[in-house]
Protein backbone atom coordinates (compact mmCIF):
# COMPACT_ATOMS: atom_id res chain seq x y z
CA UNK A 1 0.00 0.00 0.00
CA UNK A 2 1.59 3.27 -1.16
CA UNK A 3 0.53 6.27 0.88
CA UNK A 4 1.11 9.91 0.01
CA UNK A 5 1.72 11.86 3.24
CA UNK A 6 1.13 15.61 3.47
CA UNK A 7 2.41 17.73 6.38
CA UNK A 8 1.94 21.49 6.90
CA UNK A 9 1.37 21.88 10.65
CA UNK A 10 4.05 24.50 11.28
CA UNK A 11 6.78 25.94 9.04
CA UNK A 12 7.68 22.96 6.85
CA UNK A 13 5.70 22.14 3.68
CA UNK A 14 6.27 18.43 3.17
CA UNK A 15 5.06 15.54 1.01
CA UNK A 16 6.38 11.97 0.98
CA UNK A 17 5.45 8.52 -0.25
CA UNK A 18 5.90 5.49 1.99
CA UNK A 19 5.02 1.90 1.10
CA UNK A 20 3.51 -0.44 3.72
CA UNK A 21 4.49 1.83 6.59
CA UNK A 22 8.21 1.19 6.30
CA UNK A 23 9.65 1.71 2.78
CA UNK A 24 10.51 5.33 1.95
CA UNK A 25 9.96 6.07 -1.75
CA UNK A 26 10.32 9.86 -1.66
CA UNK A 27 10.61 12.58 0.97
CA UNK A 28 10.29 16.27 0.04
CA UNK A 29 10.56 18.99 2.69
CA UNK A 30 10.37 22.66 1.80
CA UNK A 31 11.63 24.52 4.85
CA UNK A 32 10.63 28.10 5.65
CA UNK A 33 13.48 28.52 8.16
CA UNK A 34 15.16 31.30 6.15
CA UNK A 35 11.92 33.33 6.05
CA UNK A 36 11.16 32.98 9.78
CA UNK A 37 14.79 33.47 10.86
CA UNK A 38 14.32 37.15 9.92
CA UNK A 39 11.75 37.42 12.74
CA UNK A 40 13.46 35.09 15.25
CA UNK A 41 10.53 32.63 15.23
CA UNK A 42 7.62 31.31 13.20
CA UNK A 43 5.10 33.98 12.09
CA UNK A 44 1.82 32.03 11.64
CA UNK A 45 0.36 34.19 8.84
CA UNK A 46 3.61 34.14 6.87
CA UNK A 47 3.83 30.35 7.33
CA UNK A 48 0.31 29.80 5.94
CA UNK A 49 0.97 31.97 2.87
CA UNK A 50 4.21 30.19 2.18
CA UNK A 51 2.48 26.77 2.40
CA UNK A 52 -0.06 27.94 -0.22
CA UNK A 53 2.72 28.90 -2.63
CA UNK A 54 4.59 25.60 -2.51
CA UNK A 55 2.14 22.84 -1.50
CA UNK A 56 1.32 21.65 -5.01
CA UNK A 57 4.90 21.76 -6.38
CA UNK A 58 6.03 19.85 -3.25
CA UNK A 59 3.39 17.12 -3.76
CA UNK A 60 4.25 16.92 -7.45
CA UNK A 61 7.95 16.56 -6.58
CA UNK A 62 7.17 13.72 -4.14
CA UNK A 63 5.47 11.78 -6.98
CA UNK A 64 8.25 12.56 -9.47
CA UNK A 65 11.06 11.55 -7.10
CA UNK A 66 9.28 8.26 -6.36
CA UNK A 67 8.82 7.68 -10.15
CA UNK A 68 5.08 7.23 -9.53
CA UNK A 69 1.86 8.65 -10.95
CA UNK A 70 -1.46 9.19 -9.17
CA UNK A 71 -2.59 5.75 -10.37
CA UNK A 72 0.05 4.17 -8.12
CA UNK A 73 -1.09 5.97 -4.95
CA UNK A 74 -3.46 3.95 -2.74
CA UNK A 75 -4.34 6.59 -0.15
CA UNK A 76 -3.58 10.07 1.19
CA UNK A 77 -2.65 10.74 4.83
CA UNK A 78 -2.60 14.32 6.09
CA UNK A 79 -1.79 16.10 9.36
CA UNK A 80 -5.01 17.55 10.80
CA UNK A 81 -3.82 18.19 14.40
CA UNK A 82 -2.17 19.82 16.33
CA UNK A 83 -0.43 22.87 14.87
CA UNK A 84 -0.96 26.40 13.56
CA UNK A 85 -4.52 26.70 12.29
CA UNK A 86 -3.68 28.54 9.05
CA UNK A 87 -0.90 26.09 8.23
CA UNK A 88 -3.04 23.02 8.96
CA UNK A 89 -5.83 24.40 6.77
CA UNK A 90 -3.58 24.60 3.70
CA UNK A 91 -2.42 20.97 3.94
CA UNK A 92 -5.84 19.54 4.76
CA UNK A 93 -7.54 21.52 1.99
CA UNK A 94 -4.98 20.27 -0.53
CA UNK A 95 -5.48 16.69 0.73
CA UNK A 96 -9.27 16.94 0.68
CA UNK A 97 -9.26 18.34 -2.86
CA UNK A 98 -6.84 15.70 -4.17
CA UNK A 99 -8.67 12.85 -2.40
CA UNK A 100 -11.90 13.96 -4.11
CA UNK A 101 -10.41 14.58 -7.57
CA UNK A 102 -8.23 11.46 -7.66
CA UNK A 103 -10.72 9.21 -5.80
CA UNK A 104 -8.31 8.23 -3.00
CA UNK A 105 -9.16 7.24 0.59
CA UNK A 106 -8.17 9.98 3.04
CA UNK A 107 -6.77 9.44 6.54
CA UNK A 108 -6.43 12.17 9.22
CA UNK A 109 -3.12 11.97 11.10
CA UNK A 110 -2.05 13.37 14.48
CA UNK A 111 1.29 15.14 14.05
CA UNK A 112 2.80 14.29 17.44
CA UNK A 113 1.80 10.63 17.20
CA UNK A 114 3.31 10.58 13.70
CA UNK A 115 6.72 11.76 14.98
CA UNK A 116 7.04 8.35 16.67
CA UNK A 117 6.58 6.62 13.29
CA UNK A 118 9.83 8.06 11.90
CA UNK A 119 11.25 5.08 13.82
CA UNK A 120 9.22 2.61 11.72
CA UNK A 121 10.89 3.55 8.42
CA UNK A 122 13.47 0.83 7.87
CA UNK A 123 13.84 0.66 4.06
CA UNK A 124 14.32 3.17 1.27
CA UNK A 125 14.36 3.15 -2.51
CA UNK A 126 17.58 3.57 -4.48
CA UNK A 127 18.66 7.20 -4.55
CA UNK A 128 17.68 7.96 -0.95
CA UNK A 129 20.66 7.50 1.30
CA UNK A 130 19.57 7.69 4.91
CA UNK A 131 20.98 5.63 7.77
CA UNK A 132 17.82 3.84 8.86
CA UNK A 133 17.08 1.55 11.82
CA UNK A 134 17.60 -2.13 10.92
CA UNK A 135 14.16 -3.20 12.21
CA UNK A 136 10.91 -1.72 13.47
CA UNK A 137 10.47 -1.20 17.24
CA UNK A 138 8.47 -3.85 19.10
CA UNK A 139 5.67 -3.39 21.64
CA UNK A 140 5.39 -2.46 24.43
CA UNK A 141 7.33 0.60 23.25
CA UNK A 142 8.34 3.60 25.35
CA UNK A 143 8.42 6.82 23.30
CA UNK A 144 10.10 10.03 24.45
CA UNK A 145 8.48 12.70 22.27
CA UNK A 146 10.40 15.96 22.35
CA UNK A 147 9.63 18.81 19.95
CA UNK A 148 9.06 22.55 19.84
CA UNK A 149 5.54 22.09 21.19
CA UNK A 150 5.65 18.81 23.14
CA UNK A 151 7.66 16.95 25.77
CA UNK A 152 6.05 13.71 26.79
CA UNK A 153 6.63 10.09 27.68
CA UNK A 154 4.14 7.71 26.09
CA UNK A 155 3.84 3.95 26.54
CA UNK A 156 2.52 2.22 23.39
CA UNK A 157 0.95 -1.22 23.89
CA UNK A 158 0.19 -1.39 20.15
CA UNK A 159 -0.46 0.91 17.20
CA UNK A 160 -3.02 3.47 18.33
CA UNK A 161 -3.17 1.98 21.83
CA UNK A 162 -1.13 4.05 24.25
CA UNK A 163 -1.07 5.81 27.61
CA UNK A 164 0.44 9.18 28.34
CA UNK A 165 2.82 8.59 31.28
CA UNK A 166 3.90 12.19 31.77
CA UNK A 167 4.44 15.50 30.04
CA UNK A 168 5.77 19.00 30.49
CA UNK A 169 3.81 21.20 32.85
CA UNK A 170 4.98 24.40 31.14
CA UNK A 171 7.41 24.93 28.22
CA UNK A 172 8.31 22.14 25.79
CA UNK A 173 12.01 21.27 25.76
CA UNK A 174 12.44 22.52 22.16
CA UNK A 175 10.82 25.79 23.18
CA UNK A 176 13.37 26.07 26.04
CA UNK A 177 16.23 25.50 23.55
CA UNK A 178 14.75 28.21 21.30
CA UNK A 179 14.30 30.71 24.17
CA UNK A 180 17.76 30.14 25.64
CA UNK A 181 19.27 30.53 22.16
CA UNK A 182 17.56 33.93 21.93
CA UNK A 183 19.05 35.00 25.28
CA UNK A 184 22.50 33.93 24.03
CA UNK A 185 21.99 35.67 20.66
CA UNK A 186 22.23 32.41 18.69
CA UNK A 187 20.33 32.04 15.39
CA UNK A 188 16.87 30.50 14.96
CA UNK A 189 16.05 27.62 15.24
CA UNK A 190 17.67 27.54 18.64
CA UNK A 191 18.04 23.78 19.17
CA UNK A 192 20.65 23.09 16.48
CA UNK A 193 22.40 26.42 17.27
CA UNK A 194 22.78 25.54 20.96
CA UNK A 195 23.93 22.00 20.16
CA UNK A 196 26.60 23.36 17.78
CA UNK A 197 27.95 26.06 20.10
CA UNK A 198 27.83 23.68 23.11
CA UNK A 199 30.45 21.44 21.48
CA UNK A 200 33.11 24.03 22.40
CA UNK A 201 31.72 24.70 25.90
CA UNK A 202 32.15 23.33 29.42
CA UNK A 203 28.87 21.65 30.48
CA UNK A 204 29.79 22.15 34.15
CA UNK A 205 30.74 25.86 33.88
CA UNK A 206 27.46 27.11 35.36
CA UNK A 207 25.29 25.53 38.05
CA UNK A 208 21.69 25.35 36.81
CA UNK A 209 18.71 23.71 38.55
CA UNK A 210 16.79 20.57 37.60
CA UNK A 211 13.06 20.96 38.24
CA UNK A 212 11.57 18.68 40.90
CA UNK A 213 8.10 17.50 39.85
CA UNK A 214 5.37 15.67 41.74
CA UNK A 215 4.47 13.49 38.73
CA UNK A 216 7.15 10.79 38.35
CA UNK A 217 7.34 11.28 34.56
CA UNK A 218 6.45 14.96 34.27
CA UNK A 219 8.82 17.68 33.06
CA UNK A 220 9.23 21.42 33.54
CA UNK A 221 11.58 23.63 31.54
CA UNK A 222 10.44 27.18 32.20
CA UNK A 223 12.42 27.45 35.49
CA UNK A 224 15.58 26.27 33.74
CA UNK A 225 15.17 28.93 31.05
CA UNK A 226 14.73 31.63 33.74
CA UNK A 227 17.76 30.28 35.63
CA UNK A 228 19.86 30.72 32.47
CA UNK A 229 18.56 34.30 32.12
CA UNK A 230 19.48 35.12 35.76
CA UNK A 231 22.92 33.50 35.43
CA UNK A 232 23.64 35.52 32.27
CA UNK A 233 22.53 38.72 34.02
CA UNK A 234 24.90 37.93 36.94
CA UNK A 235 27.72 37.06 34.54
CA UNK A 236 27.55 40.40 32.72
CA UNK A 237 26.84 42.37 35.93
CA UNK A 238 23.36 43.77 35.26
CA UNK A 239 20.10 43.54 37.21
CA UNK A 240 16.74 42.10 36.12
CA UNK A 241 15.59 45.42 34.62
CA UNK A 242 18.26 45.19 31.89
CA UNK A 243 16.64 44.36 28.47
CA UNK A 244 17.24 40.65 27.79
CA UNK A 245 17.67 41.22 24.03
CA UNK A 246 20.81 43.29 24.79
CA UNK A 247 22.47 40.66 27.01
CA UNK A 248 24.04 38.58 24.23
CA UNK A 249 26.18 41.50 23.01
CA UNK A 250 27.93 41.50 26.41
CA UNK A 251 28.88 37.80 26.30
CA UNK A 252 32.03 36.57 24.61
CA UNK A 253 32.13 33.32 22.58
CA UNK A 254 33.53 31.26 25.48
CA UNK A 255 30.78 32.40 27.82
CA UNK A 256 28.11 31.64 25.17
CA UNK A 257 29.55 28.16 24.59
CA UNK A 258 29.65 27.49 28.35
CA UNK A 259 26.06 28.65 28.85
CA UNK A 260 24.88 26.57 25.85
CA UNK A 261 26.69 23.46 27.13
CA UNK A 262 25.54 23.88 30.76
CA UNK A 263 21.91 24.44 29.70
CA UNK A 264 21.96 21.55 27.24
CA UNK A 265 23.41 19.15 29.83
CA UNK A 266 20.67 19.88 32.39
CA UNK A 267 17.82 19.95 29.82
CA UNK A 268 18.89 16.59 28.39
CA UNK A 269 19.61 15.04 31.82
CA UNK A 270 16.06 16.02 32.86
CA UNK A 271 14.63 14.13 29.87
CA UNK A 272 16.83 11.09 30.39
CA UNK A 273 16.17 10.92 34.18
CA UNK A 274 12.44 10.58 33.48
CA UNK A 275 12.89 8.22 30.54
CA UNK A 276 15.09 6.00 32.71
CA UNK A 277 12.50 6.00 35.52
CA UNK A 278 9.73 5.08 33.04
CA UNK A 279 11.91 2.32 31.59
CA UNK A 280 12.57 0.80 35.04
CA UNK A 281 8.90 0.93 36.01
CA UNK A 282 7.40 -0.36 32.75
CA UNK A 283 10.20 -2.53 31.23
CA UNK A 284 9.22 -1.90 27.58
CA UNK A 285 10.58 -4.11 24.80
CA UNK A 286 11.84 -1.06 22.91
CA UNK A 287 12.58 2.64 23.42
CA UNK A 288 12.31 5.32 20.73
CA UNK A 289 12.78 9.06 20.65
CA UNK A 290 10.79 11.35 18.40
CA UNK A 291 10.35 15.02 17.46
CA UNK A 292 12.80 17.76 16.53
CA UNK A 293 14.83 17.53 19.75
CA UNK A 294 15.44 13.82 19.01
CA UNK A 295 18.03 15.20 16.56
CA UNK A 296 20.15 16.21 19.58
CA UNK A 297 23.35 14.14 19.82
CA UNK A 298 23.77 14.73 23.55
CA UNK A 299 20.29 13.20 24.09
CA UNK A 300 21.24 10.17 21.99
CA UNK A 301 24.52 9.69 23.89
CA UNK A 302 22.98 10.04 27.36
CA UNK A 303 20.08 7.69 26.51
CA UNK A 304 22.36 5.04 25.05
CA UNK A 305 24.50 5.24 28.23
CA UNK A 306 21.63 4.95 30.67
CA UNK A 307 18.91 2.79 29.08
CA UNK A 308 19.81 -0.92 29.17
CA UNK A 309 18.23 -1.78 25.81
CA UNK A 310 19.71 -1.16 22.35
CA UNK A 311 18.17 1.96 20.80
CA UNK A 312 18.20 2.46 17.04
CA UNK A 313 17.81 6.14 16.20
CA UNK A 314 15.94 7.52 13.19
CA UNK A 315 17.98 9.76 10.88
CA UNK A 316 17.94 13.47 11.81
CA UNK A 317 15.97 14.42 8.67
CA UNK A 318 13.11 12.16 9.79
CA UNK A 319 13.17 13.54 13.38
CA UNK A 320 12.35 17.13 12.46
CA UNK A 321 9.03 17.81 10.70
CA UNK A 322 8.49 15.76 7.53
CA UNK A 323 5.71 13.93 5.69
CA UNK A 324 7.34 10.48 5.64
CA UNK A 325 6.31 10.01 9.27
CA UNK A 326 2.73 11.03 8.32
CA UNK A 327 2.62 8.48 5.48
CA UNK A 328 4.16 5.77 7.71
CA UNK A 329 1.57 6.24 10.46
CA UNK A 330 -1.11 6.53 7.73
CA UNK A 331 -0.47 2.90 6.82
CA UNK A 332 -0.93 1.55 10.38
CA UNK A 333 -3.91 3.85 10.92
CA UNK A 334 -5.54 2.57 7.72
CA UNK A 335 -5.28 -1.04 8.97
CA UNK A 336 -7.66 -0.26 11.84
CA UNK A 337 -9.75 2.71 10.70
CA UNK A 338 -12.13 3.71 7.94
CA UNK A 339 -11.11 6.64 5.73
CA UNK A 340 -12.72 9.99 6.45
CA UNK A 341 -14.96 11.73 3.93
CA UNK A 342 -13.04 14.71 2.46
CA UNK A 343 -16.01 16.94 3.31
CA UNK A 344 -15.87 15.97 6.97
CA UNK A 345 -12.17 16.49 7.67
CA UNK A 346 -11.62 19.45 10.00
CA UNK A 347 -8.40 20.70 11.54
CA UNK A 348 -7.89 20.56 15.32
CA UNK A 349 -5.02 22.92 16.27
CA UNK A 350 -4.79 21.95 19.96
CA UNK A 351 -5.69 18.24 20.08
CA UNK A 352 -3.41 16.46 22.56
CA UNK A 353 -2.25 12.87 22.14
CA UNK A 354 -4.65 11.61 24.77
CA UNK A 355 -7.60 12.09 22.40
CA UNK A 356 -6.82 10.79 18.95
CA UNK A 357 -9.19 9.65 16.24
CA UNK A 358 -8.08 5.98 16.44
CA UNK A 359 -10.86 3.46 16.54
O1 LIG B 1 9.32 18.43 15.69
P1 LIG B 1 9.80 19.74 15.24
O2 LIG B 1 10.57 19.82 13.94
O3 LIG B 1 8.61 20.75 15.14
C1 LIG B 1 7.57 20.70 16.08
O4 LIG B 1 6.63 19.88 15.87
O5 LIG B 1 7.69 21.42 17.10
O6 LIG B 1 10.70 20.32 16.44
C2 LIG B 1 11.27 21.60 16.37
C3 LIG B 1 12.07 21.82 17.64
C4 LIG B 1 12.61 23.24 17.75
O7 LIG B 1 12.34 23.72 19.06
C5 LIG B 1 14.11 23.05 17.52
O8 LIG B 1 14.89 24.05 18.17
C6 LIG B 1 14.34 21.66 18.10
O9 LIG B 1 13.21 20.94 17.67
N1 LIG B 1 15.57 21.03 17.59
C7 LIG B 1 16.61 20.69 18.39
C8 LIG B 1 17.63 20.15 17.54
N2 LIG B 1 17.15 20.18 16.26
C9 LIG B 1 15.90 20.72 16.31
N3 LIG B 1 16.77 20.79 19.72
C10 LIG B 1 17.95 20.36 20.25
N4 LIG B 1 18.96 19.87 19.50
C11 LIG B 1 18.85 19.73 18.16
N5 LIG B 1 19.87 19.24 17.45
ZN1 LIG C 1 6.85 18.25 14.83
From TrEMBL:
Domain Gcp-like: 24-327
Chief location of this protein within or outside the cell: cytoplasm
Pfam family, one: TsaD
Binding sites annotated in the UniProt record for substrate: 145-149, 178, 191, 296
MF GO annotations: iron ion binding; tRNA N(6)-L-threonylcarbamoyladenine synthase activity
Positions that bind Fe cation: 111, 115, 321
This protein's name: tRNA N6-adenosine threonylcarbamoyltransferase
GN (gene name): tsaD
Amino acid sequence: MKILGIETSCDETAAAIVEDGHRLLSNVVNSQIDIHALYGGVVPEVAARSHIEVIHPVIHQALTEAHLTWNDIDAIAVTYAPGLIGSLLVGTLAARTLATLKHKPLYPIHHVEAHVYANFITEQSKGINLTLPSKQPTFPMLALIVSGGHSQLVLFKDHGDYVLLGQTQDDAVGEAFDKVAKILGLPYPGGPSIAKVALAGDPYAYVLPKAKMTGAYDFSFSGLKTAVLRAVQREVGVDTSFPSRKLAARLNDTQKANFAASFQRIAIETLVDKAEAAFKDHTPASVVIAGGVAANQELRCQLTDRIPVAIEYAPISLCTDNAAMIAALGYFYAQKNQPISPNELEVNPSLSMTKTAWA
